Every structure is written in C-alpha cells, then in structure tokens.
Amino acid sequence: MRLEDYPKDPRFAATVLKSELITDDGADAEVRELVLEVNRDEFNFEIGQSIGVLVEGPTEFGSALRQRLYTVADTPSAGGTKPQITLVVRRCDYIDDYSGEQYPGVNSNFICDRKPGDELFITGPFGLPFTVPEDKKANLMLIGLGTGIAPFRAFLKHIYQDVGDWEGKVRLLYGAKSGLELLYMNDKRDDFSLYYDEDTFEAIQALSPRPNWADPIAWDYAIEERGGDILSILDDEHTYVYVAGLVPIRDSLDKLFGNLLGSPDAWAKRKAELKEAGRWVELLY
What fold is seen in the domain 3-126? Predict the structure, then answer.
C-alpha cells in the first residue's frame, strides 16, 4: 500500500505532552521521542501499529496536506486518562532530484519542533500489529534498523512487564551508524537495560565500521559472530522473527541469512516456511 493511499480522515486532535531528544550529543542524527495525548476518550491501537501525522506543507511540492506514518513506540496507556501515544521521529532532510538542493523534511521537522502544549492532527491507527505468541516458550528474534527500534521497545515492555515470565529466547538485533545513534541504548536513554538481567534476553548491536563514511551497517559481523545461536533459533519451530526499519534492510538480511544457511536458495525456502506459518513479519518503510 502506497503512502498516498492511506486515508487522511477521520483525523483527531492530539496535544504534545513531552518532546525529548534521545540521541547522544555529537550524533549526526537528531531523534526525538514525543508523547501525545489524543483529545478524545478512546483511541485504540496495538503494538506494532502506526499512526499518521498530518502537516500543512508547501503546495509546490504537491498536496498542501502531507501525511507521514510513525510506528507507536510504547504500549497503550492504562485507563483513567485520555489515550497517550509515544512516537520516535528522526529530523530528516532530502535532496531534490531535479535541482540537487537540500530541503528540510516537512513532517519530521514540524514534529521535532513541537513543544509541550502544541496541538497536531493524527490519523489511524494503521497496519497489522505484531502478534505476541500465546506460548511463552516461543523464541523471538527482533531485528530493527534506526527508528525501526520503536515498535520493539513497546514489544519488549509488553512481554516482560505485562505478560511476564517469558521462557523463550529473545534476541534483539539492532543496527545504527554509530554508538551515538543507537536509540534507547545510549547515555540519554537506556530503556533496554531494564531487560539485561532477564536470562532469556540478549541485545546484539550492529554498527557501521566507519560511521563517518557511507558504509552500510555491519550486520554481517553482528550476525555471523553469533551464527550458531541464530541458526539454532531459526531451526526451532517455535521461533518468530519480526523485522522493522527501512526497505533496504530486507536485501541485506536475505544475503546474510543466505550465507548462514549455505545458499540463497536454502534461505529463500526457510523464509517462505516462516512466512507461511506466520512466523516472519516485516514492518518496512
């Protein structure tokens, strides 16, 4: 489904309660976590779903009303207050294909500039949510790139704090350009440290070997270094794999898993089996 196909109605007003920088000082990327309060009594969403944020943009770039989707980064708020939604937004620029000039991204800059008390309009929720297996012995492999980490923050909070007593292995594979750009694993916010004491949990970081260059994230080092453990988990019929991030992550992972299994065909067959069983889910943008 194309972005322009997502409906812009109904839309709901939401008030910014908090906007916090969650990248380390010195990082090339500015990523903010925002908490929004929806100005209505009910706004139901599930883990892994996205909401749209509507922003008035320059008409010379197309429609005056622009919508971008952002994955919800926390579990639904408890009852007793208006619904609250946590978003993770990276301030973005883009290069015009025709002129070669650099422009600030309309939606991301608008959202990152919002202050507590400001109002904006949202739509949704959209997308199929991640489904938490009923079997607490199921293994979970969570693979995220950049702001693709957002749904996994909510996912882990849910299985360890709400569900509890999770017995299966949980592996979080997270990629970023540098340690400064790791979200929820840095000096600003280290939410995932809440689960380091869990016997079932392990966080595996994949960083670029030369973060100031245009090198890709070093998934090969991170995955191949733990190839035995990862293959063992993939071989288990109780394993679920969830992937979130930019579309190019798909090709990178296919290549790496193909190497681990010995051939692209072997991985294509395994991935097809996982998908058919509902045990491979992608949220890519």
Answer: Elongation Factor Tu (Ef-tu); domain 3 (2.40.30)
What is the per-residue pLDDT across 212-260, written as a single tens digit (0 to 9) for each? Answer: 434 445 566 666 677 788 888 888 999 999 988 778 778 888 888 888 8
| Distance, CA of 93 to CA of 267 (rounded, Å) | 36
CA distances from 251 to 143, 231, 254, 284 (A): 13, 18, 5, 12
For 8, the token pair is: 């812009």
Residue 90 burial (CB count, 10 A) = 18
Regarding beta strands 201-207 and 170-176, do their DSSP bridges make them parallel or antiparallel, or are they unpaired? parallel
By C-alpha distance, which of 56, 91, 85 is closest to 71? Answer: 85
Query: Residue 258 to residues 215, 231, 251, 264: CA-CA distances in angstroms?
Result: 21, 11, 10, 4
The Cα–Cα gap between 51 and 78 comes to 19
* Nearest alpha carbon to residue 141 among 269, 231, 73: 231
Q: At what angle do helices 264-276 and 249-261 cross, to 10 degrees?
A: 110
CA separation for the pair 36, 39 (Å, rounded): 9
- The CATH class that applies to domain 139-284 reads alpha beta
Residue 245 sits at the vertex; the CA angle it makes with 239 and 248, to the nearest 5 degrees, is 100
**Domains of the chain, residue spans:** 3-126, 139-284
Report the predicted TM-score, pTM, of the whole model to 2 decimal places: 0.71
The CA distance from 159 to 164, in Å, is: 6
Q: Are strands 280-284 and 239-245 parallel, antiparallel or unpaired?
A: parallel
CA-nearest of 251, 196, 241 to 219 is 251
In one-letter notation, the amino acid at residue 191 is D
